[in-house]
Write a structure and sequence with these properties.
Number of helices: 12
Number of strands: 0
Mean pLDDT: 91
Helix content: 55-70%
Strand content: under 5%
Low-confidence stretches: 1-9, 16-22
Radius of gyration: 20 Å
Shape: elongated
Length: 224
């Protein structure tokens, strides 16, 4: 299992703070929940044209997935950019990932790092994890295990299973840190069923004495 893990685009819709938005936004949410996607897209477009960042983000997701509109990465990216410039953190992360994955244009890791950093500044766990992946892989930035570790730790402390798993791998393999089976086991436990966490957890346990296993379990319980 490689330490680098492919980061996926977020597809979580924005439904919060409805009262802060024009009726078009709340109409869009209601229509989307009814699976009337073309009407939802039209409502979100009206709210997006009024500069509502959550509407821009939601409409961007619809273009990204081709729901109610023809799939169009360029349009999705443009909408995410508008929302991201208003500090919409989910738009910032999706925009960064589109740049990294060459969706809607050529890959641009410099812009991916820029937008991930913006979301990291807002304390968003998915951005911390994703930027950590770039530092581990040396993609768009110089490889830096210390920075990757710090970012994974911040995300892991917010219960991000992807980051918890990555921390486990770093301690298990000695990537930027000393090999520490107890610490690795702790993070694999916290990662639960994510990816190969169970496989690594079982293997780590086979390499540890009972006292170390109990210590790891106790540390994981404290962190939960």
């Amino acid at each position: 299992m490689k330490l680098f893990v492919k980061v996926l685009l977020s597809v979580v819709f924005s439904t919060l703070s409805l009262l802060a938005h024009a009726d078009d936004f709340s109409d869009g949410v209601a229509l989307y929940e009814q699976q009337n996607f073309p009407a939802a897209a039209a409502a979100f477009r009206k709210a997006a044209d009024q500069g509502k960042s959550d509407a821009q983000f939601n409409l961007g997701l619809m273009y990204l997935k081709g729901e109610g509109v023809a799939q169009n990465y360029v349009e999705a990216k443009a909408l995410f950019e508008k929302a991201a410039s208003q500090n919409n953190v989910r738009a910032q992360v999706n925009l960064a990932r589109m740049y990294a994955k060459a969706k809607g244009g050529a890959p641009n890791y410099g812009m991916a790092v820029y937008w991930f950093n913006k979301a990291v500044e807002l304390g968003y766990a998915d951005a911390q994890y994703s930027l950590g992946v770039l530092y581990v892989s040396g993609i768009g930035v110089s490889r830096d295990y210390d920075k990757a570790h710090d970012l994974f730790l911040k995300a892991a402390q917010q219960k991000n299973a992807s980051a918890q798993y990555q921390l486990g791998l770093m301690y298990f393999k000695g990537k930027g840190v000393a090999i520490d089976r107890v610490e690795a086991m702790k993070w694999f436990i916290l990662a639960g069923e994510y990816d190969d966490a169970v496989t690594y957890r079982r293997y780590a346990e086979s390499q540890m004495n009972p006292k170390e296993v109990e210590e790891a379990k106790a540390e994981a319980a404290k962190a939960q």
